[in-house]
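Structure Section — protein described below
Tokens — whole-number codes for backbone shape
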Amino acid sequence: MGSSSAGAVRVSIALGTVAGSTAQISTVTAVVLTNANILHVEARLIVSSNDGHAGYSTLAAFENFTTRVADSIIAKPNLFRHTAILGHFDQGGAYYDSGYVQPLDYFGDGTRVPMLVLSPYTAAGHISHTYDDHVSVVKFIEANWGLPPLTATSLDNLPDPVPSASDPYVPVNRPAIGDLMSLFDFHHPQADPPCIPLYGPQGPNAYPDAGHLPAIPARCVRS
């Protein structure tokens, strides 16, 4: 990630919540999109309910899905050392948030949603106060690979935020959205990134479509 002039390591990214099992994955393309609702099983697509959406799924199911996908990559050091995993919701979906909403265009922005970033180049427990948006993922891809904006008028043309002194979430140069680059330290990677613990009141195979999800890697199994 980052520009080659800064000596940064360029990495692939796994986005979101890959249609299909990553249990046997050893290499990935530069950008891989995943979806907790669609699983690719034996050359067919099945609808799942692992996205944590209010009404028909649970956050525990979403956490189980995300943990399995992430651990299947983390357990392969040669793959993970070039990877950033970005896990996020697509929209608020009935989970209210009181955070500042920036008027980016006619359609809004929407309420805040969580994003989890996993990479050897991120600091554990770090919380970003930069105003980011789903388009920040596009800006990140463009910054990482030196690509131009999608169009002359798309939101990825917006500048990076300059935080106000009173509230870091409110940019003084709004409308503005981040490119996620501030989340990474490319000069000090973690030596041995850990697997993610599996938490929850149920066993790991009690979640929706658990039989079709990536297997828990042996080095990540916990008693």
The chain is about 15% helix and 10% strand. Residues 1-12, 14-24 have pLDDT under 50 and may be disordered. Residues 59-74 form the longest helix (16 residues). The chain has one domain: 1-209.
